Amino acid sequence: MSQSKHWLKKAIILAMTFILTIGMTLGMLLPLNANASSATDNSLNEVKKKGVLVMGTSPDYPPYEFQKSHHGQSKDYGADIQLGKQIAKKLHVKLKIKNMSFNSLLTALNTHKVDMIIAALSYTPQRAKNVNFSKSYADAYINFVVNKQDAKKYHSYKNLANQSIGAQLGTTQYTMAKKQIKNVHLKGMDSTNDLVIGLKSGRFKAVPMEKPAADAYIKNTTGLAEVPSHFKGQTGQNATRCIAFHKGANSLTNAANKVIEQDNHNHTYTNKFVAAAGKKMGTAKNNKSQFSLWNYKDYFIKGLELTIVISVASVIMGLILGVIFALMRLSHNWFLHTIAVIYIEFIRGTPELVQIMFVYFGLGEIVKLPALTSGIIAIGVNSGAYVAEIIRSGINSVDKGQMEAALSLGLSKAKGMKNIVLPQAFKNIWPALGNEFVTLLKDSSLVSTIGVAELMYEMKIVQADTYEGVLPIFIIMIIYFIMTSIILAIMHYYEKKFNHKGTAKA
């Protein structure tokens, strides 16, 4: 009893030390980076030195930012994209666009994944505490998109009291709906396309959008209408669109302000950029031709290829980590055992999406990792914890006499484990490993949140370009089903082969 208490005390101390070390390290690094930026402002010189201005955006909000097919490749278009290109041109650098969910953009900016955000982003005093805002380059007016049969029922936000409303997370539309609509049942989503699908399926009574975006969806989607919101605070700072920069990046902000001032004087953004984006979007008739989705086959193929790359790399990483940490957890060395327990329980006790964002944004403060690499690492590390427990159960299922027999024949413990125990363990856990591989394949869709162009990401591009909501979802469901069926068939084939060998030897 005393030994178990002693071990438990050591485990708790080690776990607390581990958690506090990570927390203090990250907590110290983030403020240091922020202070360094404000103390010495080299933001403009740094951009010019690297020759690239990195812009973060969320391309699901036409006519501001959206994607269309161009010779089989997805390209970014929209009024905000044009503004970004114009600023880069004035600075004599190239523009690099990083796409991700709108709700991740400010995190990407604060962790220096992007140099600026142009994504129909509104100025708010709360946001201004953490970022530099440029001067306003456009005003915004928010309307509601509703189903056509409800257009006469709702005339302002007051008529939507006690109703279900959908709004994009992290937007001023979401904040206004939450604060001003009485007893609202508010549902936040990352994608505007998903909100429109929810609206058409009857899950929401209305979706607040800026007027140009609402116009675009109504023009290209049947059965929808637009009504005024009459939200309070639709003039002044609450309704202005600004570019966000790192806190303290004054020189880069000032350079952008010079471009914005000239554009505002010439009305370039409204008269030229927004108008050009509207023409580029096309019409519902053009986008929804009978064979339109077949024209997007390259998108699905590209997404499938990247999904397979992520899955294969993560499976290999998960298996390696699984074996290592399973053996560590079975070890009689209390230090190795405790490390394994902390790793397995911590990973299994936190959401995988949070882990992906932590690796990309959090560790990105220390090590600059591309989005694809971050996604593979996060999914592989997550899988490793589950595989470790599967392998541990498999090792425990092998009779202890097997190892004793190996040792009596002169084999070392390591060779006995490698040549005798592990092969039998893998045979026993083969079906469970198959289920884990299938789960990992499906979980690869989570990396779309950080801008990795796998199947889910490409599906959203097709949705935005064709204004088809459900059909692209159905297509990738079929693709995932085919892939998982192939994995299960392979696993089942080798399971039968293992059983046949075992029966023949018996």
Describe the structure.
This protein is of the alpha/beta class and 506 residues long. The chain folds into four domains: 1-37; 41-139 and 239-281, D-Maltodextrin-Binding Protein, domain 2 (3-Layer(aba) Sandwich); 142-233, Periplasmic binding protein-like II (D-Maltodextrin-Binding Protein, domain 2), CATH 3.40.190.10; 295-505, MetI-like (MetI-like fold), CATH 1.10.3720. It has helices at residues 2-39, 43-50, 79-90, 105-110, 125-128, 172-180, 192-200, 211-220, 250-266, 268-281, 284-287, 297-330, 334-348, 352-362, 371-397, 400-408, 413-443, 455-466, 471-505, and strands at 52-57, 66-70, 73-77, 94-99, 116-117, 131-133, 138-139, 142-147, 164-168, 185-189, 207-210, 224-228, 240-241, 244-246. Helix 6 links the parallel strand 9 and strand 10 (185-189). Helix 1 (2-39) packs across helix 13 (334-348) and helix 2 packs across helix 9. The protein is elongated, with a radius of gyration of 27 Å. It starts with a helix and ends with a helix.
